[in-house]
Amino acid sequence: MAASKRFMNWTNVSFTPLNGSAAPITGVTSIQIDTGGNLLKFSGDGDRYNTTVVNDFNEPTVTVHTADLVAVSSFPVGTVGTFVATHNDARNGGGTGAVTYTLSNAVVASNPLQGSHRQFGQGVLTLTAYSPDGVTNPLSFSIAT
Amino acid sequence: MATPVIVPDAVRPPLTYAGDGGALAKLVKLNDEFSNVLQVSQVFVRNQGTEYFISHGPDQTLYFPSDSPRSGESRYVWEDRGDGVFYGTLKPEEPSN
Prior knowledge:
The structure holds two protein chains of two kinds. Chain A is mainly beta.
C-alpha cells in the first residue's frame, strides 16, 4: 500500500552503547528530532536589520519521552552510542513510508525521571551527538519501501 | 540512470537533485534511485547543507576521523558521473604514504 505521507507512533526505538548491545526503549510517547542549526547574524554601520544571516553550525539533538524509566536510567549522562527510532507510516505502520532516524555517535545529555500522584512515571532522554570528522552529519534518515 | 559497473560505496548528489516537493518525497526519490546504485535495500541519507551524503549504513563518514593520522583526508575517491552526482569508492584504511 502506498505511503500515507502521515506518521503515527514510534517503534523500534533503541540506544546501543558503544561496544554494547542494543537496548530497546519501550513505552515511548513522543520523540523530537531537531537538526539543530545555529544562525549567525551580521549588521553594522547604520543598519537597522541584519544584512547577512547564515547557518554556521549544526548540533542535532533527539528528545525521547518514555514510560520506560529503567531504560532511561540505564544510560548515564555522557554515554556514547547509536540511537535509532522509526516513525511509523500512519497507514502502513513500519512498512512502506515509515522513516527511520539514526543518530550516530549520540551522547546522552540528560536523563531526568519524574512521577506524579496517579500518573505514570516519565523519563526524558535527551541526546546530542558528535561527528568523528567534524563534517559528516551524525543524523541520517532512511525510508521503508 | 544506469547502475554503474563498479558499485560505489557512497553517493553525493546536490540538494537540488532531490527535486521539488516535501522532505518525504525527496527521501523516497533518493532512496529509490540510490538503493539501486549502491545495491542495498535501504540507504542512509544525511543532509550536508549543500548536498546529500548517502551510504549503505549510518556510521560512514566523509573524511577520516579527527584523531586519525589521515584527519582531513577524504575517505572516498569521488567521481562525477556527469550530472553533478558524485560516486565514491572507499580508499584503503591503511596510510596512503
